[in-house]
Amino acid sequence: MFLKMDMSPRTAALGRAAVGISDDISGIFLNPVAIAHIEGNQVFFSEMEYMVDMRALAGVFSFPLPKHMGGRAAVHYTGFFSGDMKKTTATDIDGEMTDENFSWNEFAIGVTYARAFTDKFSIGMGAKYVRTDVADFSAQTVAFDVGTMYKTGFRNLRMGMSTTNFGPDMKFHGKYDNTYISSIWQVRLSEEYGYYALPISFQVGIADEVYTAENMRVTAALDYSHPNDLAERVHIGAEFAYDEMFFIRGGFFMDMDKSDIPDPVNPDDTALDRFNELRFGAGVKLSNFNVDYAWQDLEDLESVHRIGVSAAF
């Protein structure tokens, strides 16, 4: 589901090891506390070119709330668009007889509130409306995010936690024809679609500056994630900054448990034992304007490119 896509190029380039960093507007998708310490009004836009001409867009606008309320708020949008695809059926696997196209589109729009209660502890929370449209069918629900950040006071070590996409299961509206076949008869029944869960994820992480100099900084991050639809994962990322103007980032994550699924072609192949992936990216900051880029290799499905821009005013 599109809610698992990293719409922040910075987060993606760090291998999603960013819960403990979460200090810029783009981090709101992974940890809603990310906006707690930013200043002024800020905007963020990103685009991701996905496989087979699919793409995703995201945008955030964050602003300070009145002093008597405290904290900051943000409104954000994420959209996924498949483009036109040929409709196929069980009896028309090439779609030549049907000769129809359809699309798979999804979007989420939400609000987030974050506040620093002390100089060490911050909390953020958000709610969003989620909708999926596939051909003539649709599903919708609401989801919630919550995250915290704690600065330990030791060096610049901070600890973050987030739970994202927590909410009721989704279900497509409408019915479909299901055919039951036995050796004697064939029965076709109209049935409702079943429920399916949101991609809920719990993630904790730490981050610290492992090297600092007059004009240079290296920040390292280590995260652990527990999604409800994948194996538990460990994420490792690092960001090199020169004069807080030029940035180079790299990240790595892998499943903590080996897969129980053998390779159907070559049972001796261990490639499926433990999924892992490398990601890289870069960024530049000019005054109050940022441009970030991330690259992800999907091997046979080619590369995924993300680009994002943000500005403060």
CATH superfamily, by name, is Outer membrane protein transport protein (OMPP1/FadL/TodX)
Task: Categorize the overall geometry.
Answer: globular
Second rung of CATH, namely the architecture: Beta Barrel
Gap from first CA to last CA: 33 Å
Q: Strands of the largest sheet, in order across it?
A: 1-2-3-6-7-8-9-14-15-16-17-18-19-20
Q: Largest beta sheet, briefly?
A: 14 strands, antiparallel, barrel
Number of E-type strands: 20
Q: Determine the mean pLDDT.
A: 90
| Strand/helix succession | HEEEEEEEEEEEEEEEEEEEE
CATH class: Mainly Beta
CATH-assigned fold name: Porin
Report on this model:
This protein has 313 residues and is mostly beta strands. The protein has a single domain (2-312), classed as Outer membrane protein transport protein (OMPP1/FadL/TodX) (Porin, Beta Barrel), CATH 2.40.160.60. 2% of the residues lie in helices and 56% in strands. It has one helix and 20 strands. It has one helix at 9-13; strands at 42-49, 55-64, 72-81, 85-86, 101-102, 104-116, 121-134, 137-151, 158-166, 170-171, 175-181, 186-192, 195-196, 201-212, 216-227, 233-242, 246-255, 276-286, 289-297, 303-312. The strands form four sheets. Strands 1-2-3-6-7-8-9-14-15-16-17-18-19-20 form a 14-stranded antiparallel β-barrel. A hairpin with a 5-residue loop joins strand 1 and strand 2. The chain is globular, with a radius of gyration of 22 Å. The relative contact order is 0.19. The model has no long low-confidence stretch (mean pLDDT 90).
